[in-house]
Design goal:
The structure holds 2 protein chains of 2 kinds. Chain A is mostly helical. Chain A contains 5 helices and 2 strands, in the order E-E-H-H-H-H-H. Chain A has one domain (2-92). Chain A has helices spanning 26-35, 42-56, 63-67, 74-80, 87-92, and strands at 2-5, 8-11. In chain A, 28% of the residues are buried. Chain B has one domain (9-61, 79-164): Hypothetical Protein Ychn, Chain: A. In chain B, strands 4-3-2-1-5 form a 5-stranded parallel β-sheet. The chains are: A mainly alpha, B alpha/beta. The A-B interface holds A 60, 62-65, 67, 73-75, 78, 82-87, 100-102 and B 27, 30-31, 33-36, 102-105, 109, 112-113, 116-118.
């Protein structure tokens, strides 16, 4: 699946996750967020960058690790990304669909 | 799957108090909340241990009568070994350590994660009466003590399921 976002031609998985990690920019995140009806704040962006850093380091992602990051607690994470704290944030962070069960 | 067929709500019953059965219920409830579903977690009989202040931090896994039990390395775990004092505690500690390595939180933290996402925790009235437990013996964020009728009442709705873990 291909989409043009902020002037860039990007490829996505069937579930709507970006397939090219390095193509991500903050502007792309903002555009993707609109599709999820989320207005991205600095706090959102901090979470996205944290997820990208963890993903790049090869760590498995969980809402628990975000909760321990010092950026936001788990309740806050649910408020930032309603209906899918890890799935939606991963989508906006330009990383693959999370595979963790916690 | 069309949005109309999507599961929207799960009511999960946990009736056993050993580590693995409690975690099965916790993982399923947390997973539901993370998917944006409504989740209600109902503890009854020995499952109440998971939300009883005095016991929730000390759940064990059975080393006797558990045919799937293995030694580290995969050899069968001799039942008699499981009867030696301290072995069950050791095995349980090892299970907890392995779960921690996978980023699976301890029971209290797990319950906090579920309620942080909007999930709700309930206790069974009949089992509470049997074990002579009072509401104040339970974890503070238990929403209510319910009869079975009340449980069914709140488990209804479109695209909802009751799961016995």
């Amino acid at each position: 699946m291909e989409k043009t976002i902020s002037g860039q031609n990007l490829s996505f998985s069937e579930d709507g996750y970006m397939t090219d990690f390095s193509a991500w920019t903050e502007d792309i995140a903002k555009e993707l967020a609109k599709e999820e009806n989320i207005e991205l704040t600095d706090k959102h962006m901090e979470v996205l960058k944290f997820l990208r850093k963890k993903h790049e380091a090869g760590d498995s992602l969980s809402i628990r690790s975000v909760g321990k990051s010092g950026i936001v607690d788990i309740k806050g994470l649910y408020q930032l990304f309603p209906g899918g704290p890890l799935k939606i944030s991963s989508k906006l962070a330009g990383i693959p669909k999370p595979t963790s069960c916690v | 799957m069309s949005d109309n067929n999507k599961l929207k709500k799960v009511s999960i019953i946990c009736s056993k108090g050993n580590l693995e059965d409690v975690y099965a219920a916790l993982v399923m409830a947390n997973g539901a909340v993370m998917e944006g579903m409504e989740a209600k977690l109902f503890f009854t009989f020995f499952g109440l241990d998971a939300i009883t202040k005095k016991r929730m931090k000390k759940l064990h896994t059975a080393t006797v009568g558990n045919p799937a039990m293995r030694m580290p390395g995969g050899l069968p775990f001799p039942t008699l070994l499981g009867t030696i004092p301290g072995v069950e505690a050791g095995v349980s500690a090892m299970m907890r350590k392995q779960m921690d390595d996978l980023d699976i939180p301890p029971v209290v933290e797990f319950l906090e994660m579920i309620t942080a996402g909007g999930g709700e925790i309930f206790a069974c009235k009949l089992a509470m009466d049997m074990f002579k437990l009072k509401k104040e013996d339970l974890w503070d964020d238990v929403s209510a003590v319910l009869t079975v009728g009340e449980f069914y009442e709140m488990s209804g709705g479109e695209n909802s399921q009751i799961i016995f873990a």
